Structure formats: C-alpha cells, structure tokens
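REQUEST FORM: STRUCTURE PREDICTION
Request ID: SP-0412
Submitted by: Lab K.M.
Chain count: 1
Length (residues): 220
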Amino acid sequence: MADLGSILVIAAHPDDECLGAGGTVRNHTRAGVPVDLLCLTGNDIRNEELASASDILGVRNLYPSNRDDFDIDRSLSDSVVEVILESRPTAIITHSDEDYNRNHRICAEIVNDSIEWASHKTMYEEPHRVEQVLQMEINTLHSHPHFIVDITASYDESLLALKKYESQLSKADEFYLDFYDARTRLRGVQGACSRAEAFTVSTPRHAGPFYQKNSRELLI
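STATUS: Completed
RESULT:
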C-alpha cells in the first residue's frame, strides 16, 4: 500500500472527535492510515470514556488532558506544537473557527497558530509542515462544505464510540445522539450515500525564510 500519510485530530473536549469526525477517523484507520488524537480538556471520567471511544475508532496515539472544559487558552499552544512535532501528521482535523462554541473557536485558533509555529526551522531542529487542515462540524453546520466523506461503512462503529460518553449523553436528553443521527443522514443525502460527515479545508499559510520549504514549482 502506498504511504497515505497520517492524521492528527485536535479536539477541544472528549466526544468532539466522535461528533465531528468519528466515521472519518474509522474510515482511515480501517484503511491503515495512522490517526492520533489530542484532546485539550478532560478529567478522570471523561478521559476513560475518551480512551474507550478511541479504541473503537482505532486511534494510534491518544494525548489526553486533565483540564477544565472551559480552560482553553493560549497557554496550550506549546503543548499543541509538541504533539504536532511528535505526531508529524499530513493533515489535521480540528474545529471550525465559525463554530458557535467559544472554546471550539479558540481551539481552532490555537491549532492554526501551532501549525505555523511547528514548521519554523529557526525554532526546531526537525520542524514539521502540515499540508492541510480540515474543519469538522459539531453542532454548527458548514454552510458550504468543501467535501463530504462517505462514512456508511463506519457509522455503526462511530455511533458505538459516541455512546461511550455516558457522562455527556445523559446531560442533554440524548441530543447529541439525535443530532449526529440527523446530521449524518443529511450529509449522506447530499453525498449520495447513507451516512456522511462534512468538512471545510484550508492550507497553512507560509511566507518568509522560517520554513523548510517556502516555494513550489507546480500547482499540482
């Protein structure tokens, strides 16, 4: 099999990875693509649920945290850079900077800054340049997604992983289960399949003498 690279998912809270990209993660791990997961917050109960869900999805390396749900700020930037340099992903899946949830937006900002910083050859002996960033949907839908991933074959496992978050599902009268069901069916209709997840995509911005590779000869 050709080297398909690897993926790093960076989520604000345990369960975001399932809600936004559970089926997509399982698609890739089933295909032999390594997927690592960094979660910026957590506690004993939620991290146990996170580990169980990650096992179902086939996550390679899990980077949990013991940090309050709302304690997401710039102080996390260095640790995010460290994980990027260790994981060395081809692509990163994270939150949208247009998400209604403030902590999700801050997470997206931290990730974008950390991606750029991790590629500085003046800072690190072995910098790493991420090729693309994919923004997932949680409760806020993308108005114009760039692509839709068919997760029909992985939906059952993704749902099983999401159900591991008993501490969260019970708080909202199973809203998350209902919303994930409805959203993946909607995106499936749009993608001409049974179940799907949608993403927007961007490429990291690099300009100046700080990176291993600043230019390219061809656009494709």
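NOTES: The domain at 7-202 is CATH 3.40.50.10320 (Rossmann fold).
Reviewed by: T.R.
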